[in-house]
Amino acid sequence: MTAQIINGKELSAELKQEMKVEVEGLKQKGLTPHLTVVLVGDNPASKSYVKGKEKAAEITGISSSLIELPSSTSEDELLQLINELNDDKSVHGILVQLPLPDQIREQQVIEAIHPDKDVDGFHPSNIGKMMTGEDTFLPCTPFGIITMLKSKAIEMEGKHAVVIGRSNIVGKPVGQLLLNENATVTYCHSKTKNMKEIAANADILIAAIGKAHAITAEYVKEGAVVIDVGINRQPDGKLTGDVDFESVKEIASYITPVPKGVGPMTITMLLKNTIKAAKGLSG
Ligand code: GUN
């Protein structure tokens, strides 16, 4: 079997077109969704993500602003800024780019953002709603993954989904969203024994480990759906995934590439969340 590719770049382009039309409608009613991105320090990867977000916002007609702060910024200074943005009615979504410098506690910052402006879906209140299945902002990468699966009408109910990785941003929430879709979910992580056997039992395999080409064909069952969340920079500067694409594509039924896979979907779902924030959570 040669797998069908789920192209996140193409799906993103379609979704952005739909959003553009929706944003035009909102603008006619006097509502322009606005996203404020806060970048602390000069991490090159963060800078490039933030650029991608600004560009994508522009394509959909969403207005965005970037606040850049020096790496010496104190936690109090950042919390003060977040309070101001929480109170600013023209700002619908707030995103503080992670990671933050060591002197700033990430969790304090995440919890300072008003849950109604938390377009990352990282606030404990929104994570709680996600767990109970209430309507809320879903974390962008997991939301993008579920959207990719749905775009190909891939059945999740009753399927064995194996998530490799347990980060707060990707692994944990994607497992929860798969559970919400009635999949049977197993998490694997660095302390898991027999990871290969567990992965090779998956109908849907989510690789979010952060190690280039760690998932080889031996980890994959014939006909499995393989979602690669890895973004690993190779010595030649090119990006590559956690999955050994060339060997796994011969076994899987569907596979996401890197680049042009999950990455573009993350930004697209951020824009979806920004529109949702502008309309009001229930809108
Ligand atoms: N850094 C890497 N991914 C993300 C993300 O999805 N949101 C934020 N705020 N920072 C990130």
TrEMBL record:
Keywords: Amino-acid biosynthesis, Histidine biosynthesis, Hydrolase, Methionine biosynthesis, Multifunctional enzyme, NADP, One-carbon metabolism, Oxidoreductase, Purine biosynthesis. Residues 139-279 form the Tetrahydrofolate dehydrogenase/cyclohydrolase NAD(P)-binding domain. Residues 6-120 form the Tetrahydrofolate dehydrogenase/cyclohydrolase catalytic domain. It comes from the Bacteria. The keyword Oxidoreductase applies. NADP(+) binds at residues 165-167, 231. Pathway: One-carbon metabolism; tetrahydrofolate interconversion. Its EC number is 1.5.1.5, 3.5.4.9. CDD domains: NAD_bind_m-THF_DH_Cyclohyd (cd01080). GO terms for molecular function: methenyltetrahydrofolate cyclohydrolase activity; methylenetetrahydrofolate dehydrogenase (NADP+) activity. It catalyses: (6R)-5,10-methenyltetrahydrofolate + H2O = (6R)-10-formyltetrahydrofolate + H(+); (6R)-5,10-methylene-5,6,7,8-tetrahydrofolate + NADP(+) = (6R)-5,10-methenyltetrahydrofolate + NADPH. PROSITE patterns: THF_DHG_CYH_1, THF_DHG_CYH_2. Belongs to the tetrahydrofolate dehydrogenase/cyclohydrolase family. Homodimer. Catalyzes the oxidation of 5,10-methylenetetrahydrofolate to 5,10-methenyltetrahydrofolate and then the hydrolysis of 5,10-methenyltetrahydrofolate to 10-formyltetrahydrofolate. This is Bifunctional protein FolD. It comes from Oceanobacillus longus. The lineage of its organism: Bacteria, Bacillati, Bacillota, Bacilli, Bacillales.
